[in-house]
Amino acid sequence: MEHGFDQTTTDRIAARAGVTERTYFRHFADKREVLFDGEKQLREELTKALASVPAHVEPLPALRAAFHGAVPLIEGNRPVSELRARVIEVTPALQEREVAKVAALVVFLTEALKARGVDARIAQLCAQVGMGICAVATQRWMHDPSAGLDAELEAAFRELHEVSAEFGAKR
Amino acid sequence: MEHGFDQTTTDRIAARAGVTERTYFRHFADKREVLFDGEKQLREELTKALASVPAHVEPLPALRAAFHGAVPLIEGNRPVSELRARVIEVTPALQEREVAKVAALVVFLTEALKARGVDARIAQLCAQVGMGICAVATQRWMHDPSAGLDAELEAAFRELHEVSAEFGAKR
DNA sequence: CAGGTTGCGTCAGTGACTGACATCCTATAG
DNA sequence: CTATAGGATGTCAGTCACTGACGCAACCTG
């Protein structure tokens, strides 16, 4: 926030935390990683939420429910997320890491769906699409939080249903 | 292919090309970028393909058509893609760049759809979902090319229609 | 209290990437 | 044909992210 990410050396980051640079790298894999620690927590939250979804629920609704389960965590984090987003927005290297984290979540959700007995191909497709929907909803909510993340999720899933329905009609 | 990406210095890469390291960095932004030059070409191909889709076509079908338009380019590139994929697969830093390129295409497709008159929110959602479908299809085709990329695309879009239809039924 | 583990500091080293400047090559005006 | 401006390349020095090796101190654990 003070000098921009690229202009901040790992030395400075570590010093501000009261440790040496070497110690910083014992806690975080690289300079960027310190800004993406929350992904682990989010993953755990999604695991819990998905576990509490009845087994008979179809994959996409199950993901929708899981995302809703993670809403409190994400909304509670907004004060931090907002600062974070402002830095990421102007730093290509950080945007890259962010999409990498999303991609990692897609892989994770794919495995989680497969564990629920979903066919591997469908699992991958649903994880990819569901994560995309969630990303769009979150982005909208970051831009304007007034409607709430739950509502944005619902809206995005509804829109998915609409665009893919009219898609079907056109075939 | 010979030593692994991480074990290959930029010095070596440049030397193999008959230039100095400094010259390498005048042509590519960083060490990884040399492996992702094709994205620009793909973007141009998608632009052309999207331009030839009638204006009244709905966004998702338009994207489907655009991806089909890029199939020859992608399939023609398979010999190279295959080697590339093998290196990327075992190099996290390259996977990160790859998903970043996909994310860049999502942004690009969002703009392209908006230019067609699609509502901004719907454009983003369709670009995100459509790109996801295309990524899944491409991944399946990379794994087993026997069916052809066109067929994989059709199958993935059909599956999207199915999972989002049953999703609608459940609401 | 001996020994093992864990976290940190120090140091030296590698390699990606950049800015400044010199040089050379080429295209085009004259 | 030649002078010259522009662009591409080489050279050099420097910064900074990141890593391995070693030593030290705190803290369990039996």
Explain what you see:
The structure is a homodimer of 171-residue chains. Chain A has 171 residues and is mostly helical. Chain A folds into 2 domains: 1-31, no CATH class; 35-169, Tetracycline Repressor, domain 2, CATH 1.10.357. In chain A, 74% of the residues lie in helices and 0% in strands. The first copy, chain A, has helices at residues 10-16, 21-27, 38-51, 59-76, 78-89, 92-115, 120-143, 149-169. Chain A binds chain B through residues 57-61, 64, 95-97, 99-100, 102-103, 121-122, 124-126, 128-129, 131-133, 135-136, 139-140, 156-157, 159-161, 163-168, 170-171, and chain B through 57-61, 64, 95-97, 99-100, 102-103, 121-122, 124-126, 128-129, 131-133, 135-136, 139-140, 156-157, 159-161, 163-168, 170-171.
CATH topology of the largest domain in chain A: Tetracycline Repressor, domain 2
Compute the gyration radius of chain A: what is it?
Answer: 18 Å
Sheet with most strands of chain A: none
Q: Any idea what the CATH superfamily of the largest domain in chain A is called?
A: Tetracycline Repressor, domain 2
* Count of β-strands of chain A: 0
Number of domains of chain A: 2
What structural class results from the helix and strand content of chain A?
mainly alpha
Roughly what is the average pLDDT of chain A, rounded to an integer?
A: 95
Task: From the structure above, extract its key features.
homodimer; 171 residues; mainly alpha; Tetracycline Repressor, domain 2; globular; DNA-binding
